[in-house]
Amino acid sequence: MAKFQPTSVGKLENDYDVVIIGSGGTGLSAAIQANELGMKVAVLEKEEELGGNTNRASSGMNAAETNVQLHHGVIDNVADFYHETYKDGGRLNDKDMLGYFVYHTAPAIDWLADHDIKLDDITITGGMSKKRTHRPASMAPIGGFLVKSLLEVVAKENIPVFNKTKVTQLRQANDGRVNGVEVNADGLTKTINAKAVILATGGFGASKEYIKRFRPDLESYKTTNQPGATGDGLKLAESVGAELMQMNLVQVHPTVQQDNPHVYLIGEAVRGEGAILVNGEGKRFVNELNTRKIVSNAITALPEHSAYLIFDQGIRDHVKAIEFYDKVGLVVHGDTIEDLAKNINVDPSNLAQTVKTWNDAAENHNDAEFNRTTGMDRGITKPGFFAIHIAPAIHYTMGGIHVTPKTQVLDGNGDIIKGLFAAGEVAGGLHGNNRVGGNSIAETIVFGRQAGQQVTLYARGL
Ligand SMILES: Cc1cc2nc3c(=O)[nH]c(=O)nc-3n(C[C@H](O)[C@H](O)[C@H](O)COP(=O)(O)OP(=O)(O)OC[C@H]3O[C@@H](n4cnc5c(N)ncnc54)[C@H](O)[C@@H]3O)c2cc1C
Fold it and tell me: Does 85 contact ligand 1 (Cβ within 6 A)?
């Protein structure tokens, strides 16, 4: 199918039922859902490129008790998904949000499949006991696949999506209801009326201002986020009295290649499919599939504040993104483990011993050193051998707008701000103090759809 063409700004109308701000997974699924329920919707995106951080997602989308899991022989349980996410989030997750989320992940996979967006393969991410991370059968990175596929549905349904159209203000009626937006559309300012507005504007990982305000200790960190992840939705929401929550909870991702000006996230699927992490001495130092918080802290505590991911061709065969990492020059090669060790300046006998011990652990499913229990389907045995140099970087902002599980925005008194809805990374509460890999893409579809349904009820006066 031809590349999606955004609607020209000249076609921006004065009135819609629903204005959706942001063209990531949340905005696009909200738009499709509301459109299918009969709403006249418009998606407004400030960047030229559509898809936000969703475009960058690599590993997959978590869901429990899916048919896809059963096809792969994985017998799962929604309650386990709930408890593992709650534990991994430091028990700071909003329980109502989490409850809604876990029970709506399997329907979200089905909803995508109904739209011919099939996530038929599975892998695993840190902090999960089961393979819940759904991805395309080709094992391609989820983000680009999802944005392209959702845009195909959007095109089929004739939903207008405007790029280079930044929302600068929310409009309010005298009674406080949000009833429209002000935009700057490719240089022109315009007022748009709407029965309801959905904030699907993503997080603030790329905002120096917000990071300085809420996490000054991370000011010098690089970020994996797209440049537009500047927390605009938080400012818009605050301007109409919304409450922000857990704003200091910022996730630092452990495996980010950042030796060049461009920063690349190395997806968790690389560890999920069997890679290990070694320090400057060529030794393991952590359970690589512990939570992101724990693995990041372990790397930061090393004298060199960085580490190497080590893997082989067998692991590479299971993560298509590695072909891209190699193409852009991030992957160091070796014909043997000793060869690889020399190329990354670590002691060859140490690395050989580390890999041997790990291969025994994977074979016996018993990691006596660090108690790793997942991502052990294969050892590091099949030539060639590879390494990627990584260090932690700002990745995800768990804090955000205080919302109900119906995506309604709350003010400081716990009252609903009528006409305003928020979903996806801009909303706070779902993840606690550690967002599990794969849960965010799931959040975009689960709560994007929910927002699309709730605005429809609201616009109908129900
Ligand atoms: C490198 C990387 C890899 C990741 N991998 C995974 C993964 O494998 N699995 C997983 O679950 N999660 C992953 N994540 C996290 C996940 O991709 C994001 O949290 C999620 O996609 C956010 O979706 P969203 O729709 O809420 O926001 P986004 O996709 O960021 O979309 C928000 C959009 O709103 C636009 N916008 C903002 N302000 C305005 C404004 N004022 N006017 C108009 N438009 C505006 C932005 O430009 C952006 O395009 C990854 C994140 C990154 C950065």
Answer: no
